[in-house]
Amino acid sequence: MPTNKYVKSKPKLSITNLPNKGIKKVDFIDDFKQYYVHLLGRDENCRSPFYASSALSLVIRDRLMEHWNITHQTYSKNDCRRGYYLSMEFLMGRTLSNAMLNLGVTDTVTKAMYDLGIELEELISSEQDAGLGNGGLGRLAACFLDSCATLQLPILGYGLRYEYGMFTQTIVNGEQVEKPDHWLRHGNVWEIERLEYSHTIKFGGHTETTTDDDGHSKHTWIETSNVLAVPFDTPIPGYQNGTVNTLRLWKSVATEEFNLDEFNAGDYAEAVAAKNTAENITMVLYPNDANENGKELRLRQQYFLASASLQDVLAHWTGIHGNNFTRFAEKNCFQLNDTHPSIAIAELMRLLVDIHHLSWNEAWIITKNTMAYTNHTLLPEALERWSVKLMQRLLPRLMEIIFEINAQFMTDVSSHWPGDGERLRKMSIIEEGHEQQVRMAHLAIVGSFSVNGVAQLHTQLLQQGLFSDFYAFWPHKFNNKTNGVTPRRWLAACNPELASLISATIGDGWITDLSQLKKLEPYAEDAQFRKQWRAIKQAAKQSLIDYKKANHETELHLNVDAIFDMQVKRIHEYKRQLLNVLHVIHLYNRIKKGDTENWVARCVLIGGKAAPGYRMAKKVIKLINNVAQIINSDPDVGDKLALLFLSDYRVSAMEKICPGADLSEQISTAGKEASGTGNMKLMMNGAITIGTLDGANIEIREEVGEKNFFLFGLTEEQIESRRKHYNPLAIIDHDNDLKDVLHLLESGHFNQFEPGLFDDVISSIKNPHDPWMTIADFRSYIDAQKRVEEAYLDQERWTKMSIINCANSGKFSTDRTINEYNNEIWKLKPQPLNPQ
Ligand code: 26Q
């Protein structure tokens, strides 16, 4: 072998110690050209904004990279306690504009692009949304990451790198049609593949128990089908503070041995098919759909996330501490985003006991002290259960561990409540029945030190209802963490005009301390300020119209002076988009009757996706579109009223919608919406809420005061007591407006060529067992809408209310939420970076 004098020399230079990339205009211009021409091979003649957008993203990514490295080194050097946010969903939306805002370079980059003859906005909006989530829960995870980085907390997000995100929605003949969202087709410049941190995940096979010389039993899980988990990292920049945290998403890849076994057996086709099974795991995000419950692939996904993430954390730990786990719980903490990743509790036990040879009790203490669980729903049909049979087949060792956890838990319960068999049955992790099921929420509560709901009412209902036995047993585990949204994306970035006015008035401290918005309140009395506020809202409404027109979403003439009345969220019966439609039909009836004195024009915008298998939700979309078609084309209506269904609602659409909203519809049946977060985004942008006493609406109303919130509807308690003798037909009989609305619906006016189409929708609300009790709240809703109109007629009064709503939205920053998680659950120390 030829000797090479350079091979073993000690490094004289640090590889990672780079000069910082410049952030002056010329630096952006030079680097942009470099990427655009040299790397991507494009020139002035390229017409697609995609390559320019990619080039700029690479330029920005470079600026994050050096900070990313420093952040990482700081955490290692300080050997700090760390947190991990485990979530099946991270609904990140677009990255470029957020990265520029957080780096503080938006203005400079705008100028640099301008000099190159490029409009920055065009590059920003050509970026695909990363739609790796369904809705609230996924977007919450994304807002949390932004706040953790802004608060300089050492948190790592762990999730799945789905090849296909949330489907895109198109509307054909009024109906939802789903298209797959192959968001990675053109590559993703924001992610870095880190093959070197891959882990092997086991499925199937069987277990063996042996006893060693000391009489300890040893469990092995053998003859498994293995899949490789390969991490892809995305940088998460804090707001102008140098911190760059990490979102690590796992991709499933077939392992070599996995293929080889079959291949050696001579069955080539089987080998290729097996490769597909492995690589299918992270192929697609499941839509939030009760019909998808119990699907094997979903369980594979959940275990894949849990196992890969835990192995990752343990590999890092043993790399430093070897097999000494005494301080593990002191240094690590996992937050489980709903029960979706809660198999992590059993997996951590497996890794500690079977792989790292801790005793059961040592492992259990560590597990219970590191896991924390957040619940996001009260709907019983949304609670996860897995059949024991499926789990035994797919994850046999985990099933044994869950049985063992449950056996010890049942012992504890019976010593607390001796002789109370009913209590044991209700609390057991295993539900008995014709088929045994694992109740994941019970596993999550038993295996963690903290259980939280996402708004005050929701937490209270968990404690008194769904989890009351657990609350009686472990009251100290339960706590509330009211949700929030990040003010960087949801005000500073999406509404730059309003953000500038606010900063010019009270300074820009609000961006990282949203409670400072309170300083705006006195300006509600300032006529000049109100005028500016109104002009900004009006311009935002106009640009929303222009945007819809440019996308050929509507040819309708929309009236900017109308109330922009928005309901954007997943389509679900409990969210009661139907109630909104009943109101629209009522307004239509009034127009047709000539009852239009003091009329206030209204433009009702409804957007959201229905789970592909949720029949009733899809019918509601069709109804909205049919009603829209009739109303919008009726010459009697003119611009008094418009109804528009916004197709393909997603993060980037909400960024356009928020600034232009006057009225925020939050009209769920009381006790059903855990929190809601769209309500917070709209409030922050000066929309006024019409809502029930549900989820975080209650806290929004507390913050703005009852005069600045349009309240209606039964309370949760009233709903539950009314339920027993609910008689919608009697209510209809006593309400002429409601009678007229239903009569028009039932006459087939909105489905003249589709007879019977809405029969099931109509009969669902007339049913005395309607769980959502839409009819019960109709009158109160109509009256509240009347109060909305009165308020809107007085533009000065409306503007005051709008300013007061924004001024009191400080509580709903995820910075506040995350500080609460950190002070009460995670207890991480902020990690400021040393100046380099
Ligand atoms: C279930 C079974 C099979 C496949 C998927 C699922 C699934 C997927 C997503 C079940 C639930 C979800 C998401 C739920 C969700 O987004 N919940 C919302 O969480 C928000 C954040 O806390 C709250 O504000 C909302 O009130 C709550 O509805």
Largest sheet: 10 strands, mixed
Strand content: 15-25%
- Overall structural class, as computed from helix and strand content, comes to alpha/beta
Small-molecule components bound: ligand 26Q
Number of E-state strands: 25
Structure description:
The strands form six sheets. Strands 1, 4, 7, 8, 11, 12, 13, 14, 18 and 19 form a ten-stranded mixed sheet that branches. The two termini are 42 Å apart. The relative contact order is 0.10. The radius of gyration is 28 Å and the shape is globular. It is of the alpha/beta class. Helix 11 crosses helix 14, helix 21 crosses helix 32 and helix 22 packs across helix 29. Strand 9 and strand 10 form a beta hairpin. The site of ligand 26Q has 21 residues, from helix 6.
How are the secondary structure elements laid out?
Layout: H1 25-39, H2 49-78, E1 82-86, E2 90-93, H3 96-103, H4 106-115, H5 120-125, E3 130-132, H6 136-150, E4 155-160, E5 165-172, E6 175-181, E7 192-193, E8 199-203, E9 206-211, E10 217-222, E11 225-237, E12 244-254, H7 256-264, H8 268-280, H9 296-321, H10 328-331, E13 332-337, H11 344-355, H12 360-370, E14 371-374, E15 385-387, H13 388-394, H14 396-416, H15 421-427, E16 430-431, E17 437-439, H16 440-446, E18 450-453, H17 456-464, H18 468-473, E19 478-480, H19 487-493, H20 496-506, H21 527-550, E20 563-568, H22 577-593, E21 602-607, H23 615-632, E22 641-646, H24 651-657, E23 663-666, H25 678-684, E24 688-691, H26 697-704, E25 710-711, H27 716-723, H28 728-733, H29 736-746, H30 759-766, H31 778-793, H32 795-807, H33 814-826
Parallel strand pairs: 1-4, 1-13, 4-12, 13-14, 14-18, 18-19, 20-21, 20-23, 21-22, 23-24, 24-25
Antiparallel strand pairs: 2-3, 5-6, 7-11, 8-11, 9-10, 11-12, 15-17, 16-17
Ligand 26Q binds at residues 134-137, 140, 286, 288, 292-293, 298, 376-377, 382, 454, 483, 673-677, 695.
